[in-house]
């Protein structure tokens, strides 16, 4: 059974940075397309960033975080990262790691319908 465990969350001031990590166990990590989603209070969960499986040759980020957030993966460590820079209070949310069992190398998972496994989420709070 695949397990995804997020870490690296916490509280940071506006303009600061955080790096989230998500470690996978119980499956073949390199075969999964990996994504990050987030849910702010009172809002629906939304897509943040995604990276394709294996060498991560394809990636995508949401318009709201483009230029500030970067997704990457380390298959040797079974880990996907989300580097978050220039954070704003609007980035305050619970961030979820997600894995999709895709069939092609360049596919990225940007919608919840294609997520097969979820982490429990980790809180990021950005103070003004």
Write a structural description.
This protein has 128 residues and is mainly β. The protein contains no helices and eleven strands. The strands form two sheets. Strands 2, 4, 5, 6, 9, 10 and 11 form a seven-stranded mixed β-sheet that branches.
Summary of the model, kept short:
The protein is 0% helix and 48% strand.
Give the helix/strand layout.
Elements: E1 3-7, E2 10-13, E3 18-25, E4 33-39, E5 46-51, E6 59-61, E7 69-74, E8 79-84, E9 93-100, E10 117-118, E11 122-127
Parallel strand pairs: 2-11
Antiparallel strand pairs: 1-3, 3-8, 4-5, 4-9, 5-6, 7-8, 9-10, 9-11
List keywords for this structure.
four-stranded antiparallel beta sheet; single chain; 11 strands; 128 residues
Oligomeric organization of the protein chains: single chain
Principal-axes shape call: globular
DSSP strand content: over 45%
Helix content: under 10%
Number of strands: 11
How far is the first residue's CA from the last residue's CA?
40 Å
Main sheet overview: 7 strands, mixed
H/E topology pattern = EEEEEEEEEEE
On the 0-100 scale, what is the average pLDDT? 97
- Unreliable stretches (pLDDT < 50, length at least 5) are none
| Count of separate DSSP helical elements | 0
> Over all CA atoms, what is the radius of gyration?
14 Å
- By secondary-structure content and strand pairing, the structural class works out as mainly beta
